[in-house]
Specification:
The chain has 64 residues and is mostly helical. Helices cover 80% and strands 0% of the residues. The chain is built from two helices and no strands. The longest helix has 41 residues. The N and C termini lie far apart (98 Å).
């Protein structure tokens, strides 16, 4: 075969294109998950600190 024919066949072959699409899509989903986790974790730490403060400072009434 001629080199020109081999290059044309290689350029026309799309068998690996779907794999590349899935890799890019998976990387985007993982990145989005990490960004959401980083964003939410700071708020959760603050909220858990507020709950801890409320529970430790609240007194228990033993009289009626």
């Amino acid at each position: 075969m001629k080199l020109n024919t081999l290059i044309k066949n290689f350029a026309a072959d799309e068998s690996g294109a779907v794999t590349v699409d899935w890799v890019v899509l998976t990387a985007a989903i993982v990145s989005l998950g990490i960004a959401v986790m980083a964003s939410v974790s700071n708020g959760l730490e603050t909220l858990s600190g507020d709950i801890e403060t409320q529970l430790t400072t609240q007194g228990i009434s033993t009289t009626f």
